[in-house]
Design a protein that fits this description.
The chain is 41% helix and 15% strand. It has 342 residues and is α/β, with parallel strands linked by helices. It has a 6-stranded mixed beta sheet, with helices on both faces. InterPro entries: AAA+_ATPase, ABC1_TM_sf, ABC_transporter-like_ATP-bd, ABC_transporter-like_CS, P-loop_NTPase, Type_1_exporter.
Length: 342
């Protein structure tokens, strides 16, 4: 302002400026100051963006640790059967991040076609690792035996075609900020011809159709980020429908009801029972009541099968499973008592 006043009061000199030019200069300085302030404010965001971009680029350049065949076989060209048999033979495995810790020291396990295998065991016994190996998120150690799909080593198949034969329902499913219908269709992105009738059919199997129809927008209802507009049981049933839309030959359930209360567990368990009918199924169980009806139950301890049989057979042994079931029953009774007093 002082410089502007001096310029205005100095006619006939090189410093002279009329009032319009003075205001232009002041406006330019104010605008430059605002731009500089915004630049300073954006520096943290710019740095965060640079870090995020570097992580994305590093991820894109990451080479998978699994052995991918150059010309893998499309599994659909090898099998026309509706059933699937999955067999693990002498599997050794350790995670790359913990090479000194043996997770599976030579596991052998078979799931017969159309049957349900329940897998139980303490935390860290290798239960979820079996599912990861079946979907080839990891490969067994080089000195291992093989994992076979209908008696053929899964390593020869294209990764995408192998995974299309399986569907996983995790303990905490992730739903996307889109409609219920789109979340269900997301389970079969390789198909662009999914009809609304197919979506409704799997929703009915998952015991979620009636709830969806009670909503004002039905199947077009937005679920919010990570499914925040739905309860835990509702999210789980949408995830079951999403898993079924691809009509998998093998259904993988990883402690799918462990995070639910007893009321929601019953509804979701009914949906899971319908979903696995006539389909090869592997259930990782936290609550043993979810696998009482399984065709076979394998008890894992430190990566090895220590007991296997039906629920009744294992109870008669009065071994590991018997003790685990006793503890599970006690916990269930305590939870029911808590529900009464709430």
């Amino acid at each position: 302002m002082i410089i502007g006043a001096y310029a205005y009061t100095s006619p006939g000199t090189v410093y002279y400026a009329d009032i319009s030019n003075i205001f232009k200069a002041i406006g330019a300085m104010l605008y430059a100051g605002w731009l500089f302030k915004e630049l300073i404010r954006s520096l943290p965001d710019t740095q965060s963006a640079q870090i995020a971009a570097s992580r994305i680029l590093a991820l894109l350049e990451e080479k998978p640790s699994i052995n991918i065949p150059n010309q893998g076989v499309d599994i659909a060209t090898k099998f026309q059967e509706d059933y699937a048999k999955l067999a693990l033979d002498d599997i050794h495995f350790s995670y790359l991040s913990r090479p000194g810790v043996v997770v599976l020291p030579g596991l052998s396990l078979t799931v017969k076609p159309g049957k349900t295998l329940g897998i139980v065991g303490p935390s860290g016994s290798g239960k979820s690792t079996i599912l990861s190996l079946a979907e080839r998120f990891y490969d067994p150690d080089p000195d291992s035996g093989s994992i076979e799909f209908n008696n053929i080593n899964i390593n020869i198949f294209e990764i995408s075609s192998l995974r299309r034969q399986m569907s996983l329902v995790p303990q905490d499913p992730v739903l996307f900020d889109m409609s219920i219908s789109d979340n269900i269709r997301y389970g079969a992105l390789f198909r662009n011809d999914i009809t609304e009738e197919e979506v409704i059919e799997v929703a009915k199997v998952a015991n979620i159709h009636e709830f969806i129809m009670s909503l004002p927008h039905g199947y077009q209802t937005m679920v919010g980020s990570r499914g925040t507009q739905l309860s835990g049981g509702e999210k789980q049933r949408v995830a079951i429908a999403r898993a079924l839309i691809r009509n998998p030959k093998i259904l993988l359930l990883d402690e799918a009801t462990s995070a639910l209360d007893s009321e929601n567990e019953k509804v979701v368990q009914e949906a899971l029972d319908k979903a696995r009918r006539g389909r090869t199924t592997i259930i990782i169980a936290y609550r043993l009541s979810t696998i009482y009806e399984a065709d076979s139950i394998a008890v894992l301890h430190e990566g090895s099968v220590v007991e296997q049989g039906t629920h009744e057979e294992l109870m008669r042994l009065q071994g590991h499973y018997y003790l685990m079931n006793s503890v599970s029953q006690q916990q269930k009774e305590e939870e029911e008592e808590d529900d009464i007093f709430v």
